[in-house]
Amino acid sequence: MDWGMQNRLNRLIGSDGRCFFLPIDHGYFQGPTTCLEKPAQTIKPLLPYCDALFVTRGVLRSAVDPGIDKPIILRVSGGTSMVGKDLANEGITISIQEILRLNATAVGLSIFVGTDYEHQTLLNLANLVNQCEDYGIPVMAVTAVGKEVGQKDARYLALACRIAAELGAKVVKTYWCEKDFDKVVDGCPVPIVMAGGPKCETELEVLEFVYDGLQKGAIGINLGRNVWQNPHPVAMAKALQAMVHENATPEKAFQIFKDVKNSEKA
């Protein structure tokens, strides 16, 4: 692997082989998402606890301090919205020149395996890899499944992740599944980070699925709404950081959450 590519990957993934990416790119199809209406205010207290930001160029320029020392994963796909006909109908929205201009450490895009736009989004990934390899920029593929996430099993996720890796993604962001998640990881020759996963009612449930995924081989998380939509986002970020980088159990991480939450009240 070229030095530049390896250097960028080393910035994204810690020396312990783990990572905590914080996605704030939701507005590219959701608009002013709850708790992300003013992204600069949302992310400022959370930056110390994450390893990288996953963000669009518009929010990067308007809401992220250029002086921060955090790697940027640039969202480079889009073209659809929540009120449109099909969220899977994405294209590449950013040129390689813009990626370089913004000094992105990596780029990310969604693929929609099994949809009417499977072919289009997989070619988006392949073409992006072709361009980014010339400049040593890692590509993260996101196995987006939208509203059907709860219906997707390990067999589907393994298929999507393996295809993403085969097309050249250096990291794959996918959903955790309760059964056979280890088979999803084992079938993918590049690192996997977990997306938000199933709808959870409590903080402990979030911590439990993250712990399970880490134990089964994921190298980290790419969690947004479970962090910044929590009533106590800093407490949640600290708990997740401890789990990712300090191997905290769900119980230990939940205690960290409660301690930070209680200190905020004091």
Topology (elements, then pairings):
Blueprint: H1 3-12, E1 19-23, H2 27-30, H3 39-43, E2 52-55, H4 57-63, E3 72-75, E4 77-78, E5 91-92, H5 96-101, E6 106-111, H6 118-133, E7 139-143, H7 154-166, E8 171-174, H8 181-186, E9 192-194, H9 203-215, E10 220-222, H10 225-228, H11 233-246, H12 250-265
Helix pairs in contact: 9-11, 9-12, 11-12
| Category from helices, strands and their pairing | alpha/beta
- Please give the radius of gyration in angstroms: 17 Å
Global morphology: globular
Number of domains: 1
Widest beta sheet: strand line-up: 1-2-3-6-7-8-9-10
CATH architecture: Alpha-Beta Barrel
Distance between the termini: 50 Å
The CATH topology assignment is TIM Barrel
Number of helices: 12
- Overall helicity: 40-55%
Write down the overall mean pLDDT. 94
What summary fits the major beta sheet? 8 strands, parallel, barrel
Broad CATH class = Alpha Beta
CATH superfamily: Aldolase class I
Q: How many DSSP-defined strands?
A: 10
Beta-strand percent range: 5-15%
Flag low-confidence runs: none
The topology string of helices and strands comes to HEHHEHEEEHEHEHEHEHEHHH
Q: Would you mind describing this structure in some detail?
A:
- This protein is of the alpha/beta class.
- 43% of the residues lie in helices and 14% in strands.
- The protein is built from twelve helices and ten strands.
- The protein has an eight-stranded parallel beta barrel with strand order 1-2-3-6-7-8-9-10, surrounded by six helices. It has a two-stranded antiparallel sheet with strand order 4-5.
- Helix 9 (203-215) packs parallel to helix 11 (233-246), helix 9 (203-215) packs antiparallel against helix 12 (250-265) and helix 11 (233-246) packs antiparallel against helix 12.
- The longest helix has 16 residues, at 118-133.
- It starts with a helix and ends with a helix.
